[in-house]
Design brief:
8 helices; alpha+beta; four-stranded mixed β-sheet
Length: 219
């Protein structure tokens, strides 16, 4: 997996997910927007979408006031959209997923994880809606590439992953200096769940040399 940053990757990740997720959301009945999201306790599908659309709009408009993206800030963003229709929230999300890419590309890499986080939230929504492809789909290779770089740059625990649905083993985290890396055996979507701190209940996988909670990059 390449070590050199691809500045277009976060935007590409968002654009691929946009082209799949937005039509799905526009096809769902209003009741689905009130469904709870297991990965984000206390939030509905609409709340997650409002959070994502607000975050991406902040990126596009370069609005990062003190305390941005804190729980309190996220709650305010959601509350500010309480009077919007579901369609308006989805429209803002589409604009944000389109416009944030060039901004992230110019950021030098410091905000690339935001693209990954938004892609993970799309998986949260798919999971809540009972749709296939949560934390997977067409954008998965780009997501894994970005995840590998983020974990490496953060000096995360070294991990060797033998993925059921990827031909070659992948390395995540820092280089193993003393002793072998931790090992993961299972599918890629479950590994994404573990790195994102999402429930992996019922998934068949093996993890050795590290505890599940130690993988969480958003915790």
């Amino acid at each position: 997996m390449p070590h050199v940053r691809d500045p277009q990757l976060p935007g590409r990740l968002l654009a691929v997910e946009r082209d799949s997720l937005v039509p799905l959301l526009r096809s769902r009945p209003d009741a689905d927007f009130a469904l709870p999201v297991a990965a984000c306790p206390g939030w509905s599908v609409r709340d997650v979408l409002a959070h994502c659309s607000a975050a991406l709009t902040r990126v596009v408009e370069n609005r990062f006031e003190r305390g941005v993206f804190s729980p309190e800030s996220n709650d305010r963003d959601i509350a500010e959209r309480a009077g919007w229709t579901h369609a308006q929230v989805v429209d803002e999300l589409e604009r944000g997923m389109t416009g944030a890419g060039p901004v992230l590309a110019r950021s030098g890499g410091g905000m690339d994880i935001l693209g990954l986080g938004e892609w993970v939230h799309a998986g949260d929504v798919r999971d809540a809606l009972g749709e296939p492809g949560a934390y997977a789909g067409t954008a998965l290779p780009d997501a894994l590439t970005l995840l590998a770089r983020v974990t490496r740059e953060r000096g995360h625990v070294p991990l060797h992953a033998d993925l059921d649905d990827v031909d070659e083993p992948l390395r995540f985290g820092a280089r193993a200096a003393d002793g072998p890396p931790a090992r993961y055996l299972g599918d890629a979507a479950t590994l994404v769940r573990l790195y994102a701190g999402r429930p992996a209940t019922g998934a068949a996988y093996e993890l050795a040399g590290v505890r599940e909670g130690e993988l969480n990059i958003f915790g």
